[in-house]
Amino acid sequence: MRTRPPGVIADVDQRTIYSAAAFNRGNQLLASYNLVSQLPSINVSTAVHYGAGDIWRFGDDEKLAKNIRGATLKYFANSGHWPFQEEPAEFIRYMRSFIASLPG
Known about the structure:
By secondary structure, the chain is mostly helical.
């Protein structure tokens, strides 16, 4: 089990009320939420990133990147849901590289 990094994750976790009913309701609401058909209309440079340990909707990141023309896809091997918090140095390197690659 990972230890939680200080900051955002701990704050969100402390303020969150977890329940099976809320989890199930969230899944019900998201079950019909699908914008994949609209992704090809995105015409800006897009960075898609994902923590390899994130269990939420695993595989959606590939679907996003595949359906947005020219999107980049980056996995963060040592992260869960929040790579920016769990691997901040690698995330910043990645984002700086992405931004530097954008047309001037």
